[in-house]
Design a protein that fits this description.
Keywords: Plasmid
Number of strands: 0
Region (Disordered): 128-176
Number of helices: 9
Largest sheet: none
Helix content: 55-70%
Distance between the termini: 78 Å
Shape: elongated
Strand content: under 5%
Order of helices and strands: HHHHHHHHH
Radius of gyration: 32 Å
Length: 176
């Protein structure tokens, strides 16, 4: 949302509170706090909804209220898990990678403001090209080991104490 659009939304909010003046700091704060996906029509609809049933305490609407109302409307417009499953079955998408790509693309397109029909078309198009695809089987080549060959069991110390001190040192150090 641009600064000019934020100014329009803030002015609309202020009309409900005796036409209070809007200053630059308020516009800057509003722009910083509003979610990046909120558009002017979404924000105006949120203001209208908020003040259609104003809070009893007379609290002014803030950027967080706009974000909350827009998010609630957005979630209400998303398909349920049952609807997505039905779309997958209807379009005969049974490959897990293709189904994952379909879901991901569908929700991203809806989040970006596409209509449900456009989102489904885009999701179907991209589900045919899953991002996670099995690589063709190639012969694995072993890399040379950078570690030295393992010592035989007899050459390794039996315990940490034996690795740090010889038996003579263990007994002589304890007597001090």
């Amino acid at each position: 949302m641009s600064r000019d659009e934020a100014l329009l939304v803030l002015t609309r909010i202020m009309t409900h509170h005796g036409f209070a003046q809007v200053n630059e700091l308020q516009v800057t704060c509003f722009c910083d706090e509003i979610k990046p996906y909120v558009t002017l029509p979404m924000a105006i609809a949120a203001v209208n909804e908020y003040y259609a049933n104003p809070p009893e305490n007379g609290r002014w609407m803030m950027a967080g209220d706009v974000n909350r109302i827009v998010s609630r409307h957005h979630r209400a417009g998303l398909p349920t898990e049952a609807e997505v499953t039905k779309l997958l079955e209807t379009n005969r998408i049974d490959d897990p990678d293709a189904a994952w790509q379909f879901r991901r693309t569908l929700f991203k397109a809806l989040r970006n403001g596409r209509t449900p029909q456009q989102a489904i078309a885009k999701a179907l198009e991209l589900s045919e090209k899953p991002m996670i695809a099995a690589r063709p089987h190639t012969e694995n080549k072993a890399l040379p080991s950078k570690r030295s060959p393992r010592q035989p069991d007899s050459a390794r110390p039996a315990s940490l104490a034996a690795a740090v001190h010889s038996p003579e040192e263990l007994f002589t150090n304890n007597r001090k």
